């Protein structure tokens, strides 16, 4: 229980750092300098202004210095990161896999929020992810290597094909993102992730168009769907694959 609380708090602190990345990377600002400040009045934020989730609640969502509204996105990212971290830990325990998935989830959360707002997937984040992925593959060499290299190539290859066939419906960022995921999950779960992402994207796309939030011509970022599909895949992918195998072999 203590481990869960620790990991949740750790997740919200990482989430608070991800907020900095989400704000600064698309603006091409340095991620270490200057220290956190209010985006409206520029006042430097003190440690007690930066306690994840809690500061937002005690400040009632406003800047202590100028009263400007703080986006609900900030505590949301912190809460989400904390929840994702403990979910991964719950399923995979105290293992190297858990650490590798926690690392990837942090990258995916950052990418998703940047993709939603700016419709880009920054190369810096993909590269950081791939470097991390290579380190994890070397540390976890007992899990083998071929499976993950195939996952990497398959992720990039299939999305590249879809983008050629659909005439550019899939961005270059999505292709790189799928390759990155392949490096962490191997080829089977790469396929599952892609499959779920396409279904999620189609369902949500239709809903967004029906609710008139988006029109058919709007670009709908695909990164967040890939991220959610990845989480579903690592948690339930094996069940989905087994069900599918039974289905096609006619034993379901
Ligand atoms: Zn302010």
Automatic annotation (TrEMBL):
Example of a GO MF term: aspartic-type endopeptidase activity
Substrates-to-products reaction catalysed: Typically cleaves a -Gly-|-Phe- bond to release an N-terminal, basic peptide of 5-8 residues from type IV prepilin, and then N-methylates the new N-terminal amino group, the methyl donor being S-adenosyl-L-methionine
Pfam families in UniProt: A24_N_bact, Peptidase_A24
EC code: 2.1.1.-, 3.4.23.43
Domain Prepilin type IV endopeptidase peptidase intervals: 102-206
Domain Prepilin peptidase A24 N-terminal: 9-92
Cellular component, GO, one term: plasma membrane
Protein known as: Prepilin leader peptidase/N-methyltransferase
Main location: membrane
Recorded topology in the membrane: Multi-pass membrane protein
UniProt GO BP: methylation; signal peptide processing
Top-level taxon of the source organism: Bacteria
Family: Belongs to the peptidase A24 family.
Cell compartments where the protein resides: Cell inner membrane; Cell membrane
InterPro entries with a match to the protein in the record: Peptidase_A24A_bac, Prepilin_IV_endopep_pep, Prepilin_pept_A24_N, Prepilin_peptidase/N-MTase
Record field: transmembrane: 6-25, 74-93, 99-118, 125-142, 148-165, 177-210, 222-245
PANTHER family listed in its UniProt record: PREPILIN LEADER PEPTIDASE_N-METHYLTRANSFERASE-RELATED, TYPE 4 PREPILIN-LIKE PROTEINS LEADER PEPTIDE-PROCESSING ENZYME
Function recorded in the entry: Plays an essential role in type IV pili and type II pseudopili formation by proteolytically removing the leader sequence from substrate proteins and subsequently monomethylating the alpha-amino group of the newly exposed N-terminal phenylalanine.
Keywords on record: Cell inner membrane, Cell membrane, Hydrolase, Membrane, Methyltransferase, Multifunctional enzyme, Protease, Transferase, Transmembrane, Transmembrane helix
């Amino acid at each position: 229980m203590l481990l869960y609380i620790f990991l949740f708090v750790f997740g919200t602190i990482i989430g608070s750092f991800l907020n900095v990345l989400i704000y600064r990377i698309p603006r091409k600002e340095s991620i270490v300098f200057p220290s956190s400040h209010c985006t409206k009045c520029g006042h430097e934020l003190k440690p007690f202004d930066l306690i994840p989730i809690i500061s937002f609640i005690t400040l009632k969502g406003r800047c202590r210095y100028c009263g400007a509204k703080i986006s609900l996105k900030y505590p949301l990212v912190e809460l989400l990161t904390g929840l994702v971290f403990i979910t991964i830990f719950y399923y995979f325990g105290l293992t190297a896999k858990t650490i590798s998935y926690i690392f990837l989830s942090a990258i995916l959360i950052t990418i998703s929020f940047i993709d939603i707002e700016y419709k880009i997937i920054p190369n810096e984040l993909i590269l950081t992810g791939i470097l991390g992925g290579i380190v994890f593959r070397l540390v976890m060499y007992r899990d083998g290597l071929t499976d993950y290299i195939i996952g990497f190539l398959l992720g990039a290859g299939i999305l590249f094909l879809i983008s050629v066939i659909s005439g550019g419906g899939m961005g270059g960022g999505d292709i790189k993102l799928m390759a990155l995921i392949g490096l962490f999950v191997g080829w089977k779960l790469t396929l599952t992730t892609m499959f779920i992402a396409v279904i999620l994207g189609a369902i949500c796309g239709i809903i967004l168009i029906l609710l008139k939030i988006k029109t058919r011509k709007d670009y709908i970022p695909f990164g967040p769907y890939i991220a959610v599909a990845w989480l579903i895949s690592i948690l339930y992918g094996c069940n989905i694959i087994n069900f599918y195998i039974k289905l096609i072999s006619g034993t379901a």
